[in-house]
Amino acid sequence: MQATDEIDFAVQADGTSTWVSQGYTRPKADGSYTRRQAQNRSSTWKAVQW
What we know:
Elements: E1 7-13, E2 20-25, E3 43-49
Antiparallel strand pairs: 1-2, 1-3
């Protein structure tokens, strides 16, 4: 992974089949990344590197 690659985040609310984009971040030079997001219902998250 390069530090310039984007990590995109998506969420799928329980009971639905649709993934909704929740933005992106760029990893640090060591490849680590973080994302904070308020959540008000049960759901599944995924992070995807393009």
